[in-house]
Amino acid sequence: MRASGVLLSILCGPCVCIYVGFAACFCPARLHRRSEPEDKRRFERRQRHAPRPLVVRKRGLSIPLPEPEPEPEKLDIPSSPEELKQTTVFQEKSRLMALPLELREMIYKAVLGDDVMHVIHKENKLGHLRCKAKSEEDCPKRWYGEGPCRDSCWGVVDSSNIWMPVGDPAERSDGDVLPLLQTCRQVYSEAIPLLYSTNTFSFIDLDCLRHLSATILPSRFNAIKSLTIEWYLTWPLYDDFAQRMLFSTSLYPPHDEATWEEIWRIIAGMKGLQRLRVDLNYFDGFRDNECEQKMLAPLRQIKGVKNFTVYLGWKGKEVIGAPFKLTRPVTTGADDSSEDDW
User: Fold this and answer.
1) Domain extent for 309
2) Peptide linkage before 64 cis (omega within 30 of 0)
3) Global pTM?
4) 47 part of a folded domain
5) 109 burial type by CB count under 10 A (0-12 exposed, 13-18 middle, 19+ buried)
6) What ranges does the record give for the region Disordered, renumbered to this chain (predicted)?
7) Total domain count, the chain
8) Do residues 224 and 197 touch, judged by C-beta distance below 8 A?
9) pLDDT tens digits, residue range 158-205?
10) CA-to-CA distance for 200 and 66, rounded, in angstroms?
11) What is the sign, positive or negative, of the torsion defined by CA atoms of 90, 95, 101, 106?
């Protein structure tokens, strides 16, 4: 019995050492990778509660409204309620409309614009929360586990990263934007371009950006001038070796390579975009520079953006020939000396 135990230890010892060494290299203790069944459940729930794409319909608020030519046989028939809703009445006696357009636009911007709108994924629709900070740099970004915590601008999300109110069930979101826009067609037509062109749209969920492009008119989406994205990359993104060795299936959206590349194709098609800020974090950086270059490759297709900055939360090599300004954590002298000792 003792001899068989010694023989078993001799045979199994090298296998255990190889396993421990492999896990130490590719699975750091600080990396908490979810099991595939949980990732699949989260993905399926997000799919069930995804916002519906924009449908082709008759516009109810936009002007000018084309007036259909009356048919002779229908002149004596009263209009239906739907037709009455489409009636445009000019507001010459309104004191607001008596103001010059420049002053009206200043009023619209004070109510709807010049702010940071955090776009959130709600059940079956998108919403937004106005930033609580005085400036974008002061925005409180405190995280608890995988989602934002209560005292951040983002509120709280569930395990599927879907926003949920905490405390008061009637907690308000969406910033009271719609009441002004629904006042009349002229207010809507004058104010709606300012809503998209003067605000900064902020995202911490790639699906929210993808859904936004599919749920609003292309002209509204192309009117967006300022965009910020903060995203935590999921290991082992673009690491083919680790994916082959450690996982039998690929990453689930929105953490996979296909979604990442689709997002940058969408951003590349935004005709009015002038400012783009991207904050990326990864548990301790990429295993090698080649994987990082694959991750940054979709960003290189962005053209014509005046202010394009990318902030990486890990150290690495300098990126040359990119259309963006890259910033990494500052390397101190103590860090350099410790690396030289090794």
Assistant:
1) 225-342
2) yes
3) 0.76
4) no
5) middle
6) 61-80
7) 1
8) yes
9) 778 888 776 655 556 676 788 888 888 889 999 999 999 999 999 999
10) 33
11) negative
